[in-house]
Amino acid sequence: MRVVGSASGINIQAPDDAYFSYYNSPYISHDIGSAIDIYPRHHEWGGDIESPVTGKIVKTKKMRMGQPKQFPTHEYEYGIGILPEESETDVVRILHCKPAVSEGETVNLGDCIGKAIRSRYFNYWTGPHYHVEILSKESFSRSSKSYPLEFEYQFESKKPGNSLENIEILVDSVTDGHIIGFPEHLGYSIIGDLVGLSASNEDGKIVGILDGGLSHYKLGGVIGSSKLEQDTHVKLLDSPVGSVRNTKHGVSVFRRGPSITSFLDNTELRGLSCFIYTKHYTKKNSPQLILIPKKYGQFKELFKEGDLSELRIISGNNTVKAD
What we know:
The chain has 323 residues and is mostly beta strands. It folds into two domains: 2-145, Glucose Permease (Domain IIA), CATH 2.70.70; 166-314, no CATH class.
């Protein structure tokens, strides 16, 4: 297990072979930098979810969700509250996990606490994951009250390699909701044993790992960057994708703008989904990239595993607009 964030003296830990994200989500706790989404290696609906802390189960909550979606979902959402050993007042809340534990039970770090569900809060491209945040027991149902996470990521800026307008991508898998592919020459950055798509600043220097949905979500993060000033342009290759809203140790948060447009061969995409990966999600050192279709099920008729396709990224214009 690895520490992926902390608040109020509590460490959140994720499996060493999971990938994760802080800003690849439209919800409030990700906006304020107080939550992490952890994607287990099994990548299965109904797969095991491992406890991010050692502590006592003090809350389990079952919630009926809204209307069904165009893709299969569960009818209920669940919340699990764990009072960690380090605290008497603050809890770790886990969502999108059907509990296999009961209130009053003690769990250890890494124990199975339940099964991954496909929530109606998800979009069709969202994979199996669990949402983790830290908040007071009294605020259990209010994500807006969760505590901003602290990070230890550090990345030293560096000169970029040669950038290409058109990128080849090897299609690894195709589902109704997305394609997972491995791009060549798109550029990646490494922080310890973590890797992700490179972010660059307006001077062209690589400044960290991109975390977010380009450009289908309003916010994103540059992991490892602590020196980007407010309103600094953030770029993918030569295309601006946003401007810095705020910076703290380990991350710079940016507002979307302008929106990039991406194509796989001649098919326009809804967006590119960027995460923080481990070596388990790389080929030839390049991390996987998740590509989202404009319509659910669209990719099944157009692409198949093993295809070598062309990814094109087009900038909306030459200025960065804040929301």
